[in-house]
Structure formats: C-alpha cells, structure tokens
Write a structure and sequence with these properties.
The complex is a heterodimer of chains A (about 575) and B (about 240). Chain A is mainly α. Chain A folds into two domains: about 220 residues, no CATH class; about 280 residues, ABC transporter involved in vitamin B12 uptake, BtuC (Orthogonal Bundle), CATH 1.10.3470. Chain A has 26 helices and four strands. In chain A, the strands form two sheets. In chain A, strands 1-2 form a two-stranded antiparallel sheet. Chain A has a two-stranded antiparallel sheet with strand order 3-4. In chain A, strand 1 and strand 2 form a beta hairpin. Chain A is globular, with a radius of gyration of 28 Å. Chain B is an alpha/beta fold and about 240 residues long. Chain B contains ten helices and ten strands. In chain B, a hairpin with a 2-residue loop joins strand 9 and strand 10. The chains are: A mainly alpha (about 575), B alpha/beta (about 240).
Chain lengths: ~575, ~240
C-alpha cells in the first residue's frame, strides 16, 4: 500500500485545490456574500458559510472515496489533505484581498464585507491558518464519515441535509406557521430572528434521525406490500393526495399560493411540451408562442379596454383553445418535413415572431403593443370570482388534473404509440403504417392547447398580457423542466416544475444567480442522471442498458444449448 | 393471378430519371427477386411501391386496385409492408414492444396470435423478448425487423437488402427464414445485392439496370444465364 500513497496525496491535493478554486470563484462573483444574508441557524451559521463548508465537505468526500477505505488512515488523510487544500485556497483569497484592496476595481464583488466574512474579522494571515486547520479537521471528519457503517452515515448526512434545507427556508416557514394561530405560537421557539434557533435545528436533526431509525427497523405496516396495489388502495391514496392538494392554500398562505400558481402554470405548459418533445420527439423551442397566443386571445376576447367582445372568461375559453390548436396546426404544416436541429431553429423563430407581433404597431389595436392588454376578465363560477392567487390555485389545480389525465390517456392510446414510434424512427413509423402528417399535427395541436390553457389562466391571474411575459426564456424554462424531470415522463413534469420553478421562487433574493445555478444544475443532471429525476420507462431502460443486458443475457444464457439441440434435431 | 403488378413505372428524384419504365408482377405465394448493381433502381422500385416515392407515370396495382396515389400508411393498410434497409428497429423498445408496433394497423384482438406465430418462426426473438431491441445482434435485429413487418399480416412483403452487413452464417439463416416464409405461403418481393443467394430462394427474378428491367425469367434460368453469371454471380 505504501507505494500508492504518493498518488493518493496528489489526488487529494488536486481535488482540494479544485474545490477551493470553485469556492473562491463563487465568492468572487458575489454568491457567497449574497447567500450570507440568509441565516441557517440564527447567529451560528449562515448559508454563505455553509456554502464554503460544502466545498470542503464535497472535496474531502470525493478524495476519501477515491483513496478507498482499506486502511483507516488513508481515508482520513485524504480527507484532511483535500479539506486543508480547500482552506488554503479560500484563506489565500482572503490574504490576497487584504494585501491588495485595489482588487475590487477589477473584481467588483471582492468587497470588504466578503473579506470580513472570509477572515472571521481576524488578520488575514491568522485567517489563512484558521482556514487550513479548520479545512483539514472538517476534511478528516468527512473522511471519518466513510468509515462509519452506512446506516449511521446516512443518518448523519440526512440530519445535516435536513437542517440546511429547513434552515434555508426558515424565514418562510416562520411566516407560514405564524398564520396557524395556536400551532404557530407553539412553534415559535424553533425560529431565531433569522433562520432556525439552535434548539430548532437540534429538533429537526433529531426528528430526521428518528425517522431514519424507524425506517431501518422495518415498520412493515407502514410500507405497502410489495407488488401491485389494489384499486381501492390506489383510489384511497388518490383521494388523500387530492385532499392535501386542496388544503394547501389556506395552510401555506398567500405567498406560497403565489409560488404554487407559478408552478401550476409551468406544469400545464410542461405537460403540453412533454407531448410534443417527450412523446413525439419534435424539438420545439418556440413553445412560449402558444402560451402568448392563449393569453392575448383571452385579452382580445374579454378586455373592455380593447372593446371588441367583452366576453366572460369561460365563454372566451373554448375560442382561445380553438385558436391555439389552430395555431399549433399552422406551425406544424410548414415544419412537417423538417427534423431535429432544423425543426428547433424554425420553432425558435416562431416563438420570437409571436412576441414581435404582439409588440408591433400593426397589431396595436388588438394586442396593445408595448403597453399590452389590461382588464382581462377573471373566471367566475356563480358569484365566486377567482380573483386572487389562493382562489386561482384551485382553477390551476383543476386544469393540471384535467390535462394530466388527458396526457396519461393519450400516452397509453393508439395515438401515443404512434407518437412513440415516430420519436424512435420516423421512417420505420411510416413503414409500419403510421400517418406521419396527422400524427405530427396532432402532437403540435395538443401541445398548443395545453399552453393556450396555461396562457388563458395566466392572463386571468395578472389581469393583463404584456409582451415581456412571453420571452424566449419561458420556452427554455419549460424545456429544461422536462429534461430535469425526465423526458416523456408525466410525474417528471411536476417534479421538474417544482424543482426549477418552485424552488427558485422560494430563494428570491438569489435571482441574479438563477441562470448560473440553472446551467450548473443542467450540466450536473446531464452528467449524472441524464434520464431525469423521474424518468419514463423507455428512458430509464436506455440509460441503464448495461444492467439491463447483463440481467437479460444471464437469463438467456442457459437457453443457448437448448437452441442448438433444436437445430441438430431438425 | 398477379397480386402485385407494376406497369411502365417512371420515378424521378427531382430531374433525375431513376426508374425508366419498370414493369413487373408478383404472383400469389411467390418469391420474386430484383437484382442489379448499385444505383440500378432496386430500392427505388420498392420505395415507389410502398408510397415513399411517387411515380410520375405508370401504375401500381394490388389485386387490380391502384396504389399509385396512396400515402405510405395507406399502402401498409392495404397489405403491402416494407422491411426497410439496414435493420431499422426501435432500439429503445423491447422486442415484444417492437412487434406490437408492427401490428399498428391491425385490430387489437389479433395481436397475440400473430405474435406467437412470429415467435414460432424466430425462437431466438422469443428468448430475448424482454430485451431492448438496440442490444440485439445484427442478425437478430434483421429477424426482428422482418417479424415486425409480419405482424401487419402483409399480403406482399417487401424485403430491402435483408442480408446487408451480416456475417455469412447469419446471411444463411436469414435466407433460411425467407424460405420458411415462402413455405408458409407468404408472397415476397426481395431486393438483394447478394444475387447468388437471392436466386436460390426466388421463383423468378428481374434484372434491373439503370432504371430498366433488362431481363426477367425464372430464377433457375437466370442462374444459368451467362451474362447474369458474369455480371452478378462472379462466374467468369
């Protein structure tokens, strides 16, 4: 083993330096400073500090894992070296900033606040020493994690993760629970002025560990029996989830309802684009165009400001949907013969075209030009008006359930099969008797209808339609949430929307880093989980082909001699 | 009687006159092969029959019904099913799912029985029915492509270069299968570069050169024909 120790050192050092460089980069673009404004445990640790700590943790973990656990000391040492290297880079950055204040003229985020944060208010050389020692210790502790039994390790990691997650959202949670009356009062002690209180953090950790322990013990009654659930159980769980979904707005309050509305709009669009891209394999980058058409049509038909029709929201809805379906077909016809990259570029152009049309002077009387359309009607049922985010939530929920149901039925239908065949191979699809023209147009039309519905609800929600709401970025967002959730997977759309639309809404103050985080998330996803968070069956099988094959060929192997016997017999 | 009949068919790629008046017929239960060099127009003939290309002139009849103006999926629904060149299977679907896809134009109730028949013909596929088609070997993929076409219950099966890119031993087994299909009464129009093998399984053959039929006869006679031997069978 001795002869391997030199490469282990080098490897740990390299990983630590990389981790440190990434942390330093994030600090220099201002991320650490901004994140520092959010406390995780009030007065103890902030999100910015967690971020730097995470750099140590991840580098040390990677180093210790690569070093292997044959001997205890290698894992510990690799972790310590990597951690100390991270500390060296961050401490070095502090030293550099302290020695050369002019750095700020080049890197504007190298602010005194950041310096104070990185040096713990000490002199820079002292801070460097603290960073190296602390990094080394934290790294060694991370290495030690690997030596623990998996159960203990996962309990510790889960507890830490939960504390960080709850801590990040603590301010929001306090806001939500404060509306709960007695329960809210009872939970006050969990929160500090900002972030969790120390007691709160301990309780969160304890609860997570307890749940972990209970899981380990089995708890056979809580686990549904292996195999298929009976229809009654399925119905029951469906009813329970519905009840929970229906109770969300009053429990979570206005702010969270607003976030959920946003998620709902994207789920609607995601379900639609999932049909076009995920089922039928037609890469559409101009999907926002249909969303815009839905919103503007609703404006045209209901807004007294334009003064054309003054219909009610519900009366206008069928017309809006018919127009978006038609626009789907109109986009579909010219691109019937176009595939792949070319299709993406043409649809991209379509989306931009719609936005420019909305902005243009020519259509000003119908779209309001740059000022947009105001006074768009709100949906009503009897005397009930969907006029705020908590009420609109129910409309969106109903819309999502309906479109989700339609999407599932379509996926399992003959048309769904045709879409799948077309996605896999257009030529063969044609050779087995699929009408490519109608199959493609139906995909575009269905996708457009879902986006149209989303646009119509969006218009009702803000009571207006402005050109800048229908930017290319919306198309990209919808596509990204499908990819993150899992191409072609319906539950994936919901998870993707929660992750890419809901989460960033909760972390509003980091909006300026949103696209950066987006990019990193997409890159990491494509490298480590290309099939998405909740992949469809086909994607999951393809991405894990190797496992699939070994299992199948193991099954097929014994059959081999049987065939040869057959051959010789005939 | 002739199931499939082409009469003076002319097909163009833009300005290029690819088929210059092809006439041929396929009788019920027969294997007819089209042989010829690269670019002679063999695949173009198949693609014209299956509706992927539209002839500018001439007619194509299935039991005296005109196929000429039908779209590809309508031709399949009429019972003329092509196995495309180059083993095109749905790689991300399992063998069974591929076969189900082949029955796209059929009624749901018929599928199970047809699938059993295909599995009886290709026991190899049955063993691998849950495996992803993309992980099959080349020969197995060709079997799957043929099996998928059979699921549509074709009146005429159009085979485009089934032996392309396969090892000699697999070529033999593919031609064995074609013989078996013939024995079961399937009508086949076979396009092959491998003229030697094609003429061994076929009843009759057409020799195509630069978009025209230059010779047609029984397969046995073509095998003995001196110019065919020279040009396509490598006998000098």
């Amino acid at each position: 083993m001795r002869s391997y120790s030199a490469p282990v050192w080098q490897m740990a050092l390299k990983l630590g330096l990389i981790g440190g460089a990434v942390a330093a980069l994030l600090a220099l673009i201002g991320m650490v400073e901004v994140f520092n404004q959010r406390a995780i445990i009030g007065g103890v640790i902030s999100m910015g500090q967690t971020f730097l700590g995470l750099a140590v943790l991840l580098s040390a973990y990677a180093a210790a894992r690569r070093a292997g656990t044959q001997t205890r000391s290698t894992a510990l040492l690799a972790g310590a070296v990597a951690g100390a290297a991270v500390g060296l880079v961050i401490g070095g950055l502090a030293l550099l900033m302290a020695a050369w204040p002019d750095l700020r003229t080049i890197l504007i985020n190298a602010s005194p606040t950041l310096l104070a944060l990185l040096t713990f208010g000490q002199a820079a050389p002292v801070a460097l020493a603290i960073w190296i020692v602390a990094g080394g210790l934290l790294g060694a502790a991370t290495g030690a994690l690997l030596l623990l039994t998996p159960a203990v390790r996962s309990a510790i990691l889960a507890a830490l993760g939960a504390v960080v997650l709850v801590g990040v959202l603590a301010d929001l949670l306090r806001l939500i629970t404060s509306a709960w009356g007695v329960i809210g009062q009872a939970l006050r002690w969990m929160f500090a002025g900002r972030g969790l209180s120390v007691a709160g953090a301990l309780v969160v950790a304890a609860v997570v560990v307890l749940i972990g322990v209970l899981r380990q013990r089995g708890l056979p009654k809580l686990q549904p029996a292996a195999g298929r659930r009976s229809p009654r159980q399925t119905l029951l769980s469906l009813a329970i989830s519905l009840a929970i979904l229906a109770l969300l707005p009053p429990v979570l309050g206005t702010y969270m309802s607003e976030v959920l509305d946003q998620v709902g709009l994207y789920v609607l669009m995601g379900l639609g684009l999932n049909i076009v891209v995920g089922f039928a394999g037609l890469l559409d980058l101009g999907y926002v165009g249909f969303y815009a058409i839905g919103a503007y049509m609703m404006g045209l038909l209901t807004s007294p400001e334009l003064g054309f029709f003054n219909l009610s929201w519900w009366a206008a809805l069928p017309i809006v949907l018919a127009v978006t379906i038609l626009s789907g077909v109109v986009l579909g016809i010219p691109v019937l013969k176009v595939r792949g990259d070319y299709l993406a570029i043409i649809t991209l152009g379509f989306g931009e075209m719609i936005r420019y049309l909305a902005l243009s002077n020519a259509l000003d009387p119908y779209t309001g030009g740059p000022q947009g359309v105001q006074l768009i009607a709100k949906p009503t049922i009897g005397s009930f008006v969907f006029d705020d985010v908590t009420k609109l939530y129910y409309l969106l929920l109903a819309g999502c359930l309906l479109t989700g149901f339609i999407a599932i039925r379509l996926r399992d239908s003959r048309l769904g099969r045709a879409w799948m065949a077309m996605r896999e191979d257009e030529d063969v699809a044609q050779a087995i008797g699929i009408n490519l023209v109608s199959t493609k147009l139906l995909a575009f039309a269905t996708g457009a209808a879902f986006a149209g519905l989303s646009g119509a609800i969006f218009a009702a929600k803000i009571g207006a339609a402005y050109p800048q709401s229908f930017h290319l970025l919306v198309s990209i967002n919808v596509l990204a949430l499908i990819i993150v959730g899992g191409m072609g997977s319906i539950p994936g759309v919901i998870v993707g929307a929660l992750a890419l639309v809901g989460l960033p809404e909760l972390l509003r103050e980091f909006a300026e880093f949103r696209l950066l985080v987006y990019g990193v998330v997409l890159v990491v996803m494509m490298l480590y989980r290309p099939e998405g968070l909740l992949p469809s069956e086909a994607a999951r099988r393809e991405m894990h082909e190797d496992e699939n094959v070994t299992e199948e060929s193991a099954l097929a192997q014994p059959a081999e001699p049987a065939i040869q016997l057959e051959r010789t017999a005939t | 009687m002739a199931i499939l009949e082409l009469n003076d068919v002319h097909t163009y790629y833009g300005h290029i006159h690819a088929l210059r008046g092809i006439s041929l017929r396929v009788e019920l239960g027969e294997i007819v092969t089209l042989i010829g060099g690269n670019g002679a127009g063999k695949s173009t003939t198949l693609n014209t029959i299956s509706g992927l290309l539209r002839p500018r002139q001439g007619d194509i009849r299935l039991y005296s019904e005109d196929l000429r103006l039908l779209k590809p999926h309508e031709v399949v629904a009429k019972g003329v099913v092509q196995v495309p060149e180059g083993r095109r299977v749905f790689g991300r679907l399992t063998v069974t799912e591929n076969l189900e896809m082949g029955a796209f134009t059929r009624q749901r109730g018929e599928v199970a029985a047809h699938m059993e028949r295909v599995y009886a013909l290709f026991p190899r596929l049955k063993e691998r029915r849950r495996q992803l088609a993309g992980t099959l070997s080349g020969g197995e993929q060709q079997m799957l492509a043929m099996g998928r076409a059979l699921m549509a219950q074709p009146k005429v099966l159009l085979l485009d270069e089934p032996s392309m890119g396969l090892a000699p031993v697999l070529v033999d087994s593919i031609f064995d299968t074609i013989r078996q299909l013939h024995g079961a009464g399937t009508t086949i129009l076979l396009v092959e570069q491998n003229a030697r093998m094609a003429l061994q399984v076929a009843d009759r053959g057409y020799v195509i050169q630069t978009g025209e039929v230059i010779l047609h006869d029984t397969a046995a006679n073509l095998r003995e024909n001196e110019s065919v031997q020279k040009a396509y069978l490598g006998v000098s």
